[in-house]
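FORM 7B: Structural annotation worksheet

SECTION A. Query
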Amino acid sequence: MEKGFTRIFWQALCVGLLTGIVIVLFRLGIEKMFEFVMVHFYAAPLLFLLITTLGGLAAGFVVYKFAPETSGSGIPYVKISLLKSGRLIRVRTIFVKFIAGVFGIGTGLSLGREGPSVQLGAGAGSFIGKIFKLDEHNRDKLIASGAGAAIGATFNAPIAGTLFVLEELIHRFTPSMLFPTLVATVVSASVARHFLGANPSFNTALPHITMEGSILPVCIVLGILAGVFGVLFSKTIFFFKNFYSRIKIPNYIKPALAGFLTGLAGLFLPYILSSGNGSVEMLFKGELPIVLVCTIFCAKFIITPLCFGSGAAGGIFLPMLMLGSFLGYITGFGANLLGAEVNLVAISSLGMAGFLASVSRTPLTAVVMVFEMTGGYECILPLMLTAAIADMVAEKMKHKPIYTELAAWQIVHKGK
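SECTION B. Predicted structure
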């Protein structure tokens, strides 16, 4: 038993190292590509539109030519693969997802890097499993560990990465799965912190807020709004997925169409381009007027599902966090107009947790992820309440977890 314990430790450590390195390179690749595009092409509208369109086309071609399973987020495919003992994970997915993600998200597609990162981590776990010649059962552990390690490295949130595996991917808590996931997640997050710094993803100081005064009714209202808008967001995603499935053009061209439309909208509203980290930072710094905040929220609410439905290699995790933060800000602003005195940055962080809990139906992961990403443990009680209410509202609206629904949709539409 001691020998087996030592073996799984080293295997998980290798998964964490490989995942951490790949995620760091993936993040830097997207950021440098997006910076290059905005600096050199955004001022020339026609050229910018060409770049966003070609970026989508390149991403679509790479995906559908070499590994069609890398389309979309990647998280649903990992769930399906784990149900089938990891037999569907190919090592080539690491290269295809990496290149497609950099081309698509880096040129402006309104998607996040976390979904592709999960598939990259799962691919790393599968690769290490093949090197060690593991059977399917033990390879599954490394695939799941790699997925959690990717979340930990992407968001600098190792606890949330571990919870994500248990709450979203495998839906069970077992010591045999927990140990390698913890090891891989800690190692990958350490690698990311070494190269990218140890600051939270959103480096802002959140005030200490307690469940007193006006914060309680604001949490309740925000939880309800996050629940409702989260469900509507999910429905919008499937609306566009069904819309693209009815368009009689080659699949690899569909991300190019999304790229063109995103570029067109981005010319008027650049805040909606790519994953949205910069826009959230601006929101937290108070640099956006309320009318612009509302406009960005509405535009992002539509443009992200439009991009995601095309099958482009990108996720919705970061866009969901952005939408939640903007919804929280709008709610807090409205509450202050009615006489409440709430901190808008703090309420924005509550919106993140509520929106994520509603869409993904993973309230524990949502709460832990937001306080890790913001360093805002001072807001933990309001975070928990907002996420719980949003999750309850989603349940009452009969909304199932988005990644489970996407996995089911992927199975039904396989090959179409």
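SECTION C. Observations
The longest helix spans residues 2-40. The mean pLDDT is 92.

SECTION D. Sign-off
Analyst initials: ____
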